[in-house]
From TrEMBL:
It comes from Rhegmatorhina hoffmannsi. GO terms for molecular function: phosphatidylinositol binding; phospholipase D activity. Keywords: Hydrolase, Lipid degradation, Lipid metabolism, Lipoprotein, Membrane, Phosphoprotein, Repeat. InterPro entries: PH-like_dom_sf, PH_domain, PLD-like_dom, PLipase_D/transphosphatidylase, PLipase_D_euk, PLipase_D_fam, PX_dom, PX_dom_sf. PROSITE patterns: PH_DOMAIN, PLD, PX. Residues 467-494, 902-929 form the PLD phosphodiesterase domain. Belongs to the phospholipase D family. It is a lipid-anchor. The lineage of its organism: Eukaryota, Metazoa, Chordata, Craniata, Vertebrata. This is phospholipase D. The gene is Pld1. Residues 586-597 have a biased composition (Low complexity).
Amino acid sequence: MSLRAESHAATSALKKIAADMSNIIESLDTRELHVEGEEVDSEVLNDPKGTVCIPFSAIYHTHGFKEPGAQTYLTGCPVRVRVLEVERFTSTKKVPSPNVYTIELTHGEFTWQVKRKFKHFQEFHRELLRYKAFVRIPIPTRRIDYFSRNDFFSSSLLAGKDRPNHCPLGDFQDRAPWSPYSSLHEPGKQLEDYLSNILKMPMYKNYHGTMEFVGVSQLSFIHDLGPKGIEGFIMKRSGGHRIPGLNCCGQGRMCYRWSKRWLVVKDSFLLYMKPDSGAISFVLLVDKEFNIKIGQKETETKYGLQIDNLSRSLILKCNSYRHAQWWRQGIDEFIRKHGKDFLTEHRFGSYAAVQENTLAKWYVNAKWYFEDVANAMEAAKEEIFITDWWLSPEIFMKRPVVEGNRWRLDCILKRKAQQGVRIFVMLYKEVELALGINSEYSKRTLMHLHPNIKVMRHPDHVSSSVYLWAHHEKLVIVDQSVAFVGGIDLAYGRWDDDEHRLTDVGSVKRMTAVKSVSTANLASAAESERVPLQPQALAPESHLFERNADDASDISKMKGVGKPRKFSRFSIYKHLHKHSMHHADSVSSIDSDSSYSNPTRSQPNIIQSLRPHLKMFHHHSESKQGLAEPREADKGSIRSLKTGVGELLGETRFWHGKDYCNFVFKDWVQLDKPFADFIDRYTTPRMPWHDISSVVHGKAARDIARHFIQRWNFTKIMKPKYRSLSYPFLLPKSQQTANELKYQVPDAVPATVQVIRSAADWSAGIKYHEESIHKAYISVIENSKHYIYIENQFFISCADDKVVWNKIGDAIAQRILKAHRENKRFRVYVVIPLLPGFEGDISTGGGNALQAIMHFNYRTMCRGENSILGQLKAAVGDKWINYISFCGLRTYAELEGKLVTELIYVHSKLLIADDNTVIIGSANINDRSMLGKRDSEMAIIVQDTETVPSVMDGEEYSAGKFAQSLRLRCFRVVLGGSDQNPEHQDPVCDKFFKEVWISTAARNATIFDKVFRCLPSDQVNNLTQLRDFINKPKLANDDPAKAAEELKKIRGFLVQFPFRFLEEEYLLPSVGTKESMVPMEVWT
């Protein structure tokens, strides 16, 4: 084609576009819409800098699209309009204009585009005229030549005659005449003016038709939801959810219905809303399987649009193929621009990206963890998410209790709910006949506190066909900005500190009130005026400080509205599931034929009567755990304990009611009576609880919140009882605002963090299971250079591809063999419980469930050719002892004048490698937690970016600040001493490994065996020896004084793990027993 011909063609196209533009301009006149007395908002005209943001909580207060009063726009901020492009397309139909106009709108920080044809402008203008007439506002009278469009454009504009100067919206009348041969920018400017004028009048700006035309809704301009994508009405087809189990209705291709919905696109998710109520009726998260298809062949729908992710195939229906193309292009471009991190495959196959410069902090034991969780909850402004395997509403988060019920969990949640914070709790729904955690009571108790507290339980065992697996995550997320993740449930028995006390009798002593006392005389005054509290000086609630069975019975009525329940004994069904959660935090079953009581609900202040008798002084700001130095009060007795509100002289109780427990001695019963003791604390020591947790901020917290949201929304879809509007869909906040922290946990340090998990179709509704925790463990072990430190509740590994499948134990053995071949030092430290956490008398063998777990633990450690030691001995003989150590924890105390001992239950899920990499989470080392298809789990892998000078294998080494400080604290707890003990600095050298770690564990174990004849023991290889062993006298009973002298030689809590205990016995359940009927996967 010649240059002249091309120029002529371009000119012709230009003329056609210009002519079409002339038609549309002549058909629109905003003066027709002007209302007498309607003024333009001065705030909009002034465009102030201090724009008022719409709070994130607005997502819970949406209204129907036609209802007045809903806030859509930012206060004090104009909407700016700009026509970017005029696109001409061919059409087989005879239409006045085949042009599409791309219009860019800007409102505050938000910018978006809409595409409209000229007919859309005409229809919009006519709708506004109808709306004006509908509201019955008088139409102003005007001269016919002023009102006439023809006179206006032909005479006024072209001839330049005088025009009325009354035009409050600054209409086209002040523009120069527009001709078909002028630049395309001029008609674009006139369209901008038209739409801008409409958006300056509140009457039309807030009209639902206007909001539809410009593509905005109540969720468009919420800062924490991120940038604004395209929005609009669309038809969606029901079904497409990937829900396992018995689900048929609406899931097939032949059974569906179409509904009109408002579709909203955000940076990491899509949602649609019901226009009549404004309710969010579905949320589709962007993930690595996110994909968009169009066409009848792909979607089986004319002008169809199919959006896939791991959870659903959502099918939409558009008005035309071009309309479908526009939606696909708009969604795809927006998501790839703003949500690309969610589309890609991440390390270890995780759903979450590696997040750099993330503030993180660790916790050893629950004391400091509970305190920081309570403080973070208290600072919550919008949302609190909680998910636990077990949750006890009445636990105290700060101890000792010196402020009444203020820091009791249920009181914190109620207080925040009353302040407008939305609280969402997800609990594992246990098989009631098999497990006694009574989640139904926890749900009922929390739901009765306030309407802003919503609780879901999952799974429904029959409908989902899930009987053996559990939700095992332990998460607390505040405002999607601070996320606590680890192994600590907000439940009974979890609170503990570094002292791991066995007793909690309590003997609070007071001082006579003194108005003024000098610092110099303070100590002497405290010593001379300390007197014990008299029983009659206390209110009836003082059973917390005095042994009184009747008082305890009365106080048990303080809390709980449990309806009568009965649990059947000896049910085959019960025993099928009794230990299905065997790793799940040491709780078994409720074997009670008696019905629960239904006491009147009340919440008296259980400590208020005591407060007048406590003299508190020396106000002291308590430093938090993490990288801070240990306090003197933490190192010794509680006889002089400084708290955040003062100092208590004497001893007080830390564990009230059901919180004082020893689950190997007796499992929890009657959980609806939280303040009634269920074991005698004067004769039975409690079982100390050793645990690890963490907190992260910013983007990593957003990732953890995303997992919670995915599970919550999946549960809402799956369970009909949660489909009502009272259980809302949750929305993830944008990663773009993640670093705008409103609250920060003290003493956190920056590091690189990635969130990893175990999730599957039954737990999160995803197409493919995820086992990123398993992959992360193996990767860290294989790539470690100096040492591995592991604390875990279970140690079941070494795959045989028959019963056990996870390969963590194999990775450890292979890493040691690699070090042996290279003739390099490499250490592996493994700390696990001395006994599994099941109710049972170990003196008689412990029962079938306890023995089954012992079998798989021993099979991993030392028994059989697949065990770690079996693999090592086959290659290096007895030299394995230079590489790996297995230990447990034990402590002792004096209870009512008698020496007692008990193991410390290790519940941690921790791996540290090379003082620079840490994995903390809820996942045990077993198939249930690691394979992804079974229990749902959550963890984080932390890699240090800040280093401190240290020593490794005798050489200078740059250790990570986060990892090394955590290891040193763990060593201090289990070995005794301090975090700065120079012996603990180098975990690889022979001096530490042999002369400190191995020596301490062996010495402590020998002393405990000598004094208490503890079980498990290497001296007991079979049940016959067990009977003889327990009948022999104990030094603690025969000569308490000598026993006490021996116990003074104990350092820390570390003891060697007894490899030979019951090694001659077959520990798996015998054929014919109830436990033998349970699938083997339950134990592994």
